[in-house]
User: Fold DUF2892 domain-containing protein from Bosea massiliensis.
Amino acid sequence: MPLNSPIDVFKCKYSHVSSFGFITGETVMTNVGALDRTLRFLLGALLVAAVFVPPFAGMVASWGAWKCALTVWGVAMLATAAFRFCPAYTLLGIRTCPVAKS
Assistant:
């Protein structure tokens, strides 16, 4: 099947319905696969927790503005895991999710 546009390279097929009912077998632009998504979620949660959880907060207490950078990076990792889309992957032409065969 020929590609209609460069963006078609990054489309994967969903076969499930979200809790809100928005995704019902439509083609949705994603480029983050299951393993990548899991690792992003774990790393993002760890980075956010490093600033707020007392045992970890002591380790990063002297980092100053880097604490904010860790939190922002953690939130970005959580967001890319939740939406299954990474803008940097689009720029680099990377896709870790399998392409659905039509």
